[in-house]
Every structure is written in C-alpha cells, then in structure tokens.
Write a structure and sequence with these properties.
The complex is a heterodimer of chains A (216) and B (216). Chain A has 216 residues and is an alpha+beta fold. Chain A contains seven helices and five strands. Chain A has helices spanning 27-32, 38-46, 54-57, 60-82, 94-101, 127-139, 176-194, and strands at 111-113, 124-126, 144-152, 161-171, 198-210. In chain A, helix 7 links the parallel strand 4 (161-171) and strand 5 (198-210). In chain B, helix 3 packs across helix 4, helix 5 packs across helix 8 (194-211) and helix 6 crosses helix 8. The two termini of chain B are 34 Å apart. The chains are: A alpha+beta (216), B mainly alpha (216).
C-alpha cells in the first residue's frame, strides 16, 4: 500500500517558482518541501500517491514528509481503535437506556381502516403494524430478510387499492425468481387475510444477496 | 454471532413438518439453504427496517456501531467522561431522523455526524461552565476510569499533543482523521470557511508530525 521506496537523490525537479501552486499559506514550508505543502502531500496520500507526481516522488524532503504523514495516519487509526471498548456485551448496557427514550409511537404512521365506517366503532391498523405484518411474512421465508416496506395508495377506506414495494435480502442458493414469487404471493395472502384492501401491485425488489456460511 | 450453526428455519407452513435444511423444501416448495438473521444483514437493510419501525433491527445497529461511536466520542471529548451519554444521545437522535434519511447506505458516517454534533455540544457546554476560552479539551486523564487503561502511552502522547493544539486545529484534525469528514463537510460542521479548514488541518498535521516523531 505504501510506497516508501528509497530516494534516488535529493534534487528537486522543480525550479523555484516554476510551478503555480494554489496554496500560499505557509511559504517556509514550501521551501522546505521543494515547492509543495503538507496539504498537497496529504491530498497525494489520500489518493494513494496516484497518479505519480515526480515532483513529489523525486524530492527527498517530500518523501520524508510523506513517511511522517503515513506514520501519523497509522497512529490516528490506532488512536481510535485503542479507544474501542472490546469488553464483550458492553454495548448491551446502552440499549435499555436508548429504547426507553425513543418514541415508538412516532413510527406508527396513519391509522388504516380495516372495516367500513360504522356507528358501532372502527377497526384500524397503523401503517407501522401493516409494515410489520409484511416484514414478518417475508422473514418467515428461510433465506429471506425484508428491508423497507413501502405502502402506496390512498388508504382512507377499507376497500382502498393498496400497492406495495418490498425490498428483500436473499441468501445465495435460493432460486431467486421462484423464491421471490413465493414471497410475493405470501404477502398478498397475508394482506387478504387481515385487511379488506384491494391489492394492487406487489413488487419485490432483491437488494442484496448473501453468501451462505462456509460448509463445516 | 457465528454463522456456523444455523437455527432450524421456521416456515409458515404446517407445524411439525420436518425441516433440516439441505434438500428439504420450505414454504412454497422452495429449497432451504439456510436462514438470514438480522446480525448478517447489511447496514442498509437494517437502517431501512429501523426507519420502518423495527426496533430489533435498530438494536443491531446500536451493537454494531456503538463501540466505535463511543471511541470516537472519547477522542473528540478528550476523555471517557460523557462518552456513553454521547452514544446514547446519538442513537436517540438517529431513531428520530431515520424516517427522513434518504441514503440508507451510509449509516456509519451518518451516525458519526450525529455523534460529532453531540460531542461538540458537550464541549461547548463544558467550556461555558469552565470559563476557558480555547482549550476546551483537558489533557488526558491518565488516572481515569479503568476502561481507559488500554490507552497506550502512544495514545496518551497523541492526546496530549492534540490537547495542546488551538481549538480549530484540533477539531479540524479530529473530524478529518477520525470522523472521515471532507474539507467541505468540516467547514459546514464547524461554520468556518473552507480555506480556514485547509490551513488549520495543515498546521495541525505539521505540529502533530513533529510532536509524534519517534512513535511508531
């Protein structure tokens, strides 16, 4: 990854003032670095030193600065890594605190009518619950994991037209077309079983394919 | 979570059907090639589910990213004090913002950005109380909690060098090197001109390169 190749010589290929350089903030630095700045060298490092710039690569002082910059990068990475608490299960302690503070009801969305309006009362299901039903239906298929569930339609009456897009991850090895069609039909069946909505388009979109675990 | 042992899938079909994987058939007559659980899902899928209200998917994100967020908070704050609070505040805010999140494929950097704001807020609050004008980060607390014990002498040297930097240089460096911010994003986050970011970062790197000379 790094290119700490030894110096051929220390000469600068750039005559002073021969190149226009955008940053003029630290003139002393440019003299030290054969017309370059630490910023430029950092950018060069960010780009993995490509395309090669001979005015940097052939400068001994630039090469030394690049070595120092790389070292600082490694220290920065270690600096962060070393602060990671690797005691197993430590992060579990945060979860109750976080869950106690998040607004679950905010995700419920609108109430969707399950029955026609009546004087005796109303049966409704939240959008969140409907999404949850679709997720549970899809997740029950081994090798599937449902992602986003998008509800499409003006779901203001019990017999409204409901269309869906269901994003899924799928395990490698399943016949994708057959499997997604099976899931699609199961989602439709679940919606028919639990709601009176007319079911429009139900699209299943495979977002990711996971390799199975290595054979034992 | 190891993938070596696959829990028997639970198809939505009739209970009691044999289901061992391999060539057995699952729901809709599909072959069973294993199961996908949330721990194996990518951030994009988990984030989409969490946006739809799936708390379990959200807790997987907490477990997955919490430790690095905490490490980042420790480094930005200069000590472990308040770092757990920053992590928890970050996830509470993340939950609220999830439904509006457009790009679910960059979850980690999105969380880092929330954590940055939480940490900077804490630093501002500290400074307001402590009545110091520039050095909002104390020198590292070497005798601090036991969880800091893993900080090596090298990390302490870097923390000390950082804490001696002027505020704009220190923050710019932390956001760039540990937070992965671009120059423009730093300018935006810290409300300073992009040219100031470039200069501050170059000076910070120069100083740290010198201060950290000799550390590997």
């Amino acid at each position: 990854m790094t290119t700490d190749r030894p110096s051929s010589d220390g000469r600068s290929p750039i005559a002073p003032g021969g190149e226009s350089i955008t940053s003029t903030e630290i003139p002393a630095e440019k003299e030290e670095l054969d017309g370059h700045t630490i910023e430029e060298l950092s950018d060069y490092l960010d780009d993995d030193c490509t395309p090669p710039d001979p005015s940097i690569d052939d400068s001994a002082s630039c090469r030394i600065a690049l070595i120092d910059l790389r070292r600082l990068r490694r220290l920065s990475v270690a600096f962060l890594d070393d602060a990671v608490d690797d005691r197993p299960g430590q992060e579990e302690a945060w979860i109750p605190g976080i869950l106690s503070r998040i607004g679950l009801s905010a995700r419920a969305g609108h109430d969707l009518p399950l029955t026609p309006p009546s004087d005796s009362g109303a049966l409704v299901m939240t959008e969140g619950a409907l999404r949850s039903l679709v997720r549970a239906t899809g997740d029950a298929f081994p090798g599937f994991l449902v992602g986003r569930v998008e509800l499409v339609g003006e779901l203001t009456s019990a017999d409204a037209l409901l269309s869906l897009q269901v994003d899924v991850d799928i395990l490698h090895g399943l016949p994708i077309r057959e499997a997604t069609e099976g899931l699609r039909l199961a989602v439709i069946a679940a919606l028919r079983a639990h709601t009176l909505f007319r079911i429009g388009r139900v699209n299943v979109v495979v977002r990711d394919i996971h390799r199975g675990p290595a054979p034992a | 979570m190891t993938d070596g042992s696959i829990a028997p899938p639970r198809p939505p079909g009739p209970p009691g059907a044999p289901f061992e994987g391999g060539s057995d058939r699952g729901p809709a007559g599909l072959p069973v090639v294993g199961t996908l659980d949330l721990d194996r899902a990518g951030d994009a899928t988990l984030t989409a589910r969490a946006a739809d209200g799936d708390v379990k998917a959200f807790t997987v994100l907490v477990r997955r990213h919490g430790p690095v967020l905490r490490a980042y908070a420790i480094r930005v704050l200069g000590s472990a004090t308040d770092s757990d609070d920053v992590v928890q505040d970050t996830f509470v805010t993340a939950w609220d913002q999830l439904p509006k999140l457009q790009n679910t494929s960059a979850t980690k950097s999105w969380l880092i950005r929330i954590a940055t704001r939480k940490a900077l807020d804490r630093l501002r609050a500290r400074r307001d109380h402590a009545d110091v004008d520039d050095h909002d980060v104390a020198a590292p607390d070497v005798d601090g909690p036991a969880r800091q014990a893993e900080s090596s002498e090298r990390d302490i040297a870097l923390q000390t060098a950082l804490s001696a930097l002027p505020e704009d240089q220190r923050r710019t460096w932390l956001l760039r090197e540990l937070g992965g911010y671009s120059y423009a994003e730093i300018a935006d986050e810290l409300s300073i001109p992009a040219s100031t970011v470039r200069g501050a970062l170059a000076r910070a790197r120069k100083t740290l390169m010198t201060q950290m000379e000799g550390w590997r």
